[in-house]
Amino acid sequence: MRASDVSAAPATGLSAQQIDDLRAQYGWNELPRQKPPGPLIVFLRQFGGMLVVILVVAALIALALGERVDALAIALVLLLNAILGFVQEWRAETALDALRSMLSPHAIVVRDGQEIDIPARELVPGDLVVVAAGAAVPADLRIVSAMEIRVDESVLTGESVPVDKSERGTEDETLLFAGTALVKGRARGIVTQIGQHTCFGQIAQLTGSVGQKRTNLQIRLGKLAQQIGIAAISIAALVVVIGLMVGRGPFEMFMTGLSLAVAMVPEGLPAVVTITLAIGASAMARKNALARRLQAVETLGAASVICTDKTGTLTENQMTATQIWTHDRTYDVTGEGYDPKGHIETGGKSVRASDDLTLALILKTALTCTHASLHREGEHWTMIGAPTEGALVTLAYKGWAPPVSQADLISETPFSSERKRMSVLANDAGRTRLFVKGAPEVVVERCDRILTHGTQHPLDPSTRQHIAGAYQSMAAQGLRVLALAIRDTDGKDTSETNLTFLGLVGMIDPPRAEIESALRLARNAGIRVIMITGDGAITAAAVADKIGLGTPDLIEGHEIDTMDDGALAERLQDDVLFARTRPEHKLRIVKALQSKDQIVAMTGDGVNDAPALKQANIGVAMGIRGTEVSKSAADLVLLDDDFSTIVNAVAEGRRQFENVRKFVRYLMSSNAGEVLAIMVNLIIGGPQIFLATQILWMNLITDSITAVALGLEKEEPDQMRRPPRKPSEAILGRAGFALIVTFGLYTATASLWIFYTFLPYGVDIARTTAFTAMLIFEKVSVFAFRSLTRPTTTIGWFSNPILVIAFTISVSLQLAAVYWPPLQTLLRTVPLGIEHWSIICLLAAPLIIVPELAKAVRTHRTPKTEGA
After folding, report:
1. How is the beta sheet containing 600-604 ordered, strand by strand?
2. How do residues 640-672 score in pLDDT, each as one tens digit?
3. Same domain, 504 and 519
4. Quick one: 688 and 830 in the same domain?
5. 750/781 Cα distance (integer angstroms)
6. pTM for the full model?
7. What is the pLDDT of residues 710-744, one digit of tens each?
8. 433 shares a domain with 367
9. How far is CA 286 from CA 98, 303, 314, in A?
10. Pairing with 543, which of 154, 155, 166, 380 sits 20 to 30 Å away (CA)?
């Protein structure tokens, strides 16, 4: 289906009725997504693992040998395990799907005469779309107006060099294709094709999805599980051989060896890690940090340096013009934000554009050199565009400046971080003028005249010093300062030279209210914060001091250009602040920090920030003011552009890594006790301490429930007062191995003692008591793993209600296994009396008391170290 013949009124766009009709005809602007697996497929997938296949074979063998009870028990265990796995995987898939929906791109579109921001999927053929540098093209567009645009079409052509486009030329030169990105300029275009009918849609499916590649943590845990699996099969084979040599039956030893292998292998580890990371990513999204790739969740916890922009991240991104300086006088501006109700005042009197020629031209330049617009919604005003331009438009409204007609605009040389200025050629009252705004040091350098008292005069050295002094005075107040200038032309000359200086506009972007506490939290966590801004040195230093960064050494962009990589890395050893930087400087800073083994989080919002975001260990894009290109390159998107959100995300990353470490050690400790008890009992030569079905029950049913609940443990009080962990830090390590051995030895010894204590009363009662004791030991010990350093009294016994519920469910299942006849038959258990439970509880108590005492003593001895 072609939609090229669909057109729209270039000025006003489509109406609501037209949109409804076109959507009914063409549908949504999205590619067909692969249908997610249904519940049945997800459930059947639980029977695909190697161990599950082995258990199915074992059940069939048991059935063939007439052991119907064993076969039924294994089948029941497999069914319950599949149900648990299904619930966990479905929950993780739901969490990931919610993240995918949050990653949908947006587009600026003109409808009913107004520019509005909508999800890109809502575009229809005929829509009038506005795209600017850094934006991804949301659909196939036919250009109707363009200002020096350049497009990266590498996603379609493989050609890395951007191509020029315009409204005039060949068909290809007038078309923008979905999936490509503007690297320069600004354009308006009419949508010709959407969704699968776009050129890109015919090549591949373009989806904004959460990255599915495995994380380093998952890879390392997968290898660990492999190694344990090989060891498990070897030990199980050895046990079978020994058992056969001492006269045990082949079927009995086959089932024991199989169960022992299952007991040793933490087969649920990779799945539990994926579930934990996915659910953690959803938790981060609720805190306004959207993880585009799951590895960001893991890596964030190890971040040692955060390189952050100033505007909108450390500040509110609510620019308000507060001062105007001209050679004749200084004006104060009242009001806040983008509400134009304030006034321009001088000497206590309100003034308008018509009262002063210089002021009139300043406000005219503010309205001409902009792509921002204000819109009133009831009692509130909203702004579409860059915050700086929005502040200038608001300033012009406060001075009652007459509006600028789009028909008067002739051409534009857009702003870029390299040029630090923007100019627009436009008709103005019968003459053609070039209107320029930009960084003072850049604009003033290109001026040779100044407007004062309504006439132009040469710009002599003393006046230049006067301007510089005014600029420095405004910057020292923490104001962002722009210079404005004009030049009359012949209608063709757009060179930004021989300009006439008009004045300076000072804008304030107040620091975010929570920024000081966020910076303090980052410092306490051992994380360096480096501010990198395009603002001037004086403004950058003033803002740094105001928000609590102190007075670090200041390095300007031109100084970076003179340093080699080694010199830059050495300077980064000190406390530094960067001003007047360009995007390529960010890339060098990241590489220099990484050369010193730092784990770097880098923020960015522009198209040219993409290389630095990709190079950083964690690229962080701005969700509000960030371009689609920067978001695509990033690992993390800040939905609120707030620095404190990065710190909160680091805390969440640390929490998740610690929880993964906790449940890995917990599972391994539980399995170690079972394995040691079985092997020692086999060497002693006594009756089987655990039957195969009992081992399966312990490992495939009850362990997974508590392990997943342990992964939801809240952050510990001192979590953000510890230094960043090394990325190479082991999940287990020596301390973890010692912990596993200690718990394993105790639970194995206690279970064996119980077994042989009650053996004179019958093997069934002894085995049931030992089986129940081992399970209770494993469930009770989970509380010792809630924190590896702090006693539960400090983190709260009931602060993780999910764990309490999981503990209750596990114990309830075991009670059913002991007292419910159907499970008694399947698991070959007998009822226990009060004397059995008394001994079990007595021996389980040290698993809570001893770790709590040890951690309490450690906390008491080292309170200052942990709280530093």
Report:
1. 289-291, 636-638, 618-622, 600-604, 305-308, 528-531
2. 888 888 888 888 888 888 888 888 888 888 888
3. no
4. yes
5. 13
6. 0.71
7. 878 888 878 888 888 876 677 777 788 888 899 99
8. yes
9. 11, 21, 20
10. 380
Report in angstroms the alpha-carbon separations of 277 from 93, 207, 214, 668, 800.
11, 21, 11, 20, 18
- Tell me the pLDDT band of 208, cut-offs 50, 70 and 90: very low
φ and ψ of 341, to 5 deg:
-80, -10
The question of whether 309 is a catalytic residue gets the answer yes
Same domain, 708 and 838: yes
Which residue among the candidates 309, 609, 641, 703 is catalytic per the annotation? Answer: 309
How many domains does the chain contain in total?
4
Distance, CA of 57 to CA of 63 (rounded, Å): 10
Q: 529 or 46, which is more confident?
A: 529
For residue 721, give the nearest of 526, 520, 528, 519 by alpha carbon: 526
Same domain, 419 and 533: no
Numbers of helices and strands, H then E, in the chain? 32, 28
Q: Say what the pLDDT of residue 161 is.
A: 62
Domain span at residue 847? 651-867
- 333/105 Cα distance (integer angstroms): 37
Residues 668 and 563 in one domain: no
Q: Decide: helix, strand or coil at residue 453.
A: coil
**Residue 674 belongs to a domain:** yes
Return the H-helix or E-strand segment holding 548: none
| Strand residue runs (E) in 414-472 | 421-428, 431-438, 447-452, 455-458
Q: What is the CATH number of the domain that holds 144?
A: 2.70.150.10
- Residue 199 confidence (pLDDT) above 70: yes
Residues 411, 339 share a domain:
yes
